[in-house]
């Protein structure tokens, strides 16, 4: 479980630097330059993801709470809109006129779905930790950036792109889920 916790701490720390440690980030960029900072940021994220995956797979789960019988289906249903939100954050869509942080909201929806489906210790650490990180990240970004100015409207046709890309990503994720987590995403 320690690798999983370490992975979440690295993930959170690296992601929180731009919103809570701006002077530190500025010093790093000044010392390294922007491109090397971005490379270091990416290395931190990849390292955290490896720690999370290996930590998840090596942790022995113990039951913390009984997930509801419908929880697994809820997770299967919620992952698709979570992916759409995540993908929409990088595209010009009208969704960003409604939701200030679509990517972080997607992470929160993903984590809630998985907490409904899994009541074991490693799930509580991973999905609860990622959900908590997403909420903290939204709060710190809002504090850093101040009042939200909604983006201009975009053509409705652009709103279809994250829906379609999300469907493809969802299909791929269903296929690779057992290889990443050791658990099939599909109900038996």
Structure description:
By secondary structure, the chain is an all-alpha fold. It folds into two domains: 1-59; 60-188, no CATH class. The protein contains eight helices and no strands. The relative contact order is 0.15. The mean pLDDT is 93.
Features:
single chain, 188 residues, mainly alpha, 2 domains, 8 helices
Mean pLDDT: 93
Number of strands: 0
Please state the CA-atom Rg, rounded to the nearest Å. 18 Å
Distance between the termini: 27 Å
Helix percent reads over 70%
Estimate the global geometry from the Cα principal axes. globular
Order of helices and strands: HHHHHHHH
Tally of contiguous helical segments? 8
Weakly predicted, low-confidence segments: none
- Most strands sheet: none
Structural class: mainly alpha
- Percent of sequence in beta strands: under 5%
Secondary structure layout:
Elements: H1 2-20, H2 22-32, H3 34-58, H4 71-88, H5 95-98, H6 102-117, H7 121-145, H8 160-181
Helix pairs in contact: 1-3, 1-7, 2-3, 4-6, 4-8, 6-7
């Amino acid at each position: 479980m320690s690798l999983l916790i370490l992975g979440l701490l690295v993930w959170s720390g690296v992601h929180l630097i731009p919103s809570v440690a701006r002077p530190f980030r500025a010093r790093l960029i000044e010392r390294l330059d922007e491109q090397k900072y971005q490379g270091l940021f990416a290395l931190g994220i990849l390292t955290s993801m490896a720690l999370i995956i290996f930590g998840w797979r090596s942790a022995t789960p113990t039951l913390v709470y009984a997930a509801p019988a419908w929880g697994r289906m809820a997770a299967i249903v919620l992952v698709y809109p979570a992916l759409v939100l995540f993908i929409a954050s990088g595209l010009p869509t009208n969704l960003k006129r409604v939701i200030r942080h679509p990517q972080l909201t997607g992470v929160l929806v993903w984590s809630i779905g998985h907490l409904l489906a899994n009541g074991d210790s490693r799930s509580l650490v991973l999905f609860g930790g990622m959900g908590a990180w997403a909420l903290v990240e939204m709060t710190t970004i809002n504090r850093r950036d101040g009042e939200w100015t909604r983006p201009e409207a975009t053509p409705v046709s652009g709103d279809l792109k994250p829906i379609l890309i999300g469907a493809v990503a969802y299909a791929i994720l269903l296929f690779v889920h057992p290889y990443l987590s050791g658990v099939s995403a599909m109900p038996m």
